[in-house]
Amino acid sequence: MFRVSGLLRDEPRQVVRDADFETTGEGTDAYALASAVASPEHELFPHCRRTGQ
Q1: What residues have CB less than 8 Å from 32, skipping those under 6 apart?
Q2: Where are the alpha helices (DSSP H) in the chain?
Q3: Distance CA 21, CA 1 (A)
Q4: DSSP bridge partners of 30
Q5: How does pLDDT run across 12-42, given as a tens digit for each residue?
């Protein structure tokens, strides 16, 4: 698993493709710090496998 911050939703997908992986599914999670005034942030967790395998 890798963690990417500050990218638009399609950018991590391109990083996965560029690394010769294919996305087989995705999970998301939202979180916010208890002391934060900002809106929750959403994380994308791609489920991947190497292409050609």
Answers
A1: 38, 39, 40, 41
A2: 10-18
A3: 12
A4: 42
A5: 888 888 999 998 998 888 888 777 687 887 7
